[in-house]
Every structure is written in C-alpha cells, then in structure tokens.
TrEMBL record:
<feature type="region of interest" description="Disordered">
    <location>
        <begin position="134"/>
        <end position="159"/>
    </location>
</feature>
<feature type="compositionally biased region" description="Basic and acidic residues">
    <location>
        <begin position="134"/>
        <end position="146"/>
    </location>
</feature>
<protein>
    <submittedName>
        <fullName>LEA type 2 family protein</fullName>
    </submittedName>
</protein>
<dbReference type="Pfam" id="PF03168">
    <property type="entry name" value="LEA_2"/>
</dbReference>
<dbReference type="InterPro" id="IPR004864">
    <property type="entry name" value="LEA_2"/>
</dbReference>
<feature type="domain" description="Late embryogenesis abundant protein LEA-2 subgroup">
    <location>
        <begin position="50"/>
        <end position="128"/>
    </location>
</feature>
Amino acid sequence: MKRGWHALAWLLVVLLTACSSGGIPRRVSEPAASVQQLTVEADGRWSIELRLQNYSSIPMRFDSVSFEFKLGDEAAGTLAAQPALTIGPESADVVTVAFDPSANARLLLAGRLADGRGVGYRFEGTINAAPADRGKARDYKVKRDSQLSPVPGLPGVLR
C-alpha cells in the first residue's frame, strides 16, 4: 500500500512539472502584407483591401503601415494606414485603405482594365507592430512583388 502512494505522488510531481513547463513558446515573426483587392471608385480614387499576415505564435497589434506603392513601372504614391488592429496567432485580417494614386498610375490601370489585362504591383516600406499583450512596437521592413488580375463580371476590380 505504501508503495502505491509513492507511485501516485511521483506521478503527481511529473504531471505538475509538465504543466508548468511554460506551454506554447512565444515566437515573434516578421509580418507580411499583400493587396487582396483593388477597386477603382467612380471618382478615380482606389480602394485597396490590404491583407496583413501575422506569422507569430502570439497575437500581434498592427499599429500602422506605410508603403511606397508601384503599379507596373509607375510610382503610384504612398499607401499608408493606421489600422490599430489585433490579429491572432498565425492568422490574417484585411483593412480597406482609400488611396489617391498618381495620374500616371491611374492611366496605366485604366488602359489595362480596358484591355482586360492584369498588372504587376510592388510595394516596399514598413509595418509597425507589437505583441498584443505587451511589448514595444517596432518597424518591420516589408517588400512585396505580385500580380493583380481583373475580376470577371466586376468592372474596375482586380484581385
């Protein structure tokens, strides 16, 4: 009987040690961003749905983004927003940013849409983010090259 109690006590110690080992490790990884959708509004401005990706194992607070945005070879301007958005671990969310593009970028996109063709985009800049529970925000450098294609049946919309 005494031997049974010792085994039970030993098992309890092992279980308590396993439970207090810290759980899931806190890993903060560089975030990413991409254009999920670009819509040309009636007034010529663009509405850009910017997808923010949190690759960290903990929730992150996204305070601001600022990117130099190019469409094809044309500088379109600075894409900036202050989403003040918390994104869960290894998840993503979308923020909509009103954007007033340069005249040359506007013309380029109008021509591509008229021809039914897509266009490449590039942005380079920073995402300012921090762990949601604590921690000082820092700037993460971000660079993205990708393509947008017209959406059939939705005039002025590219994904």
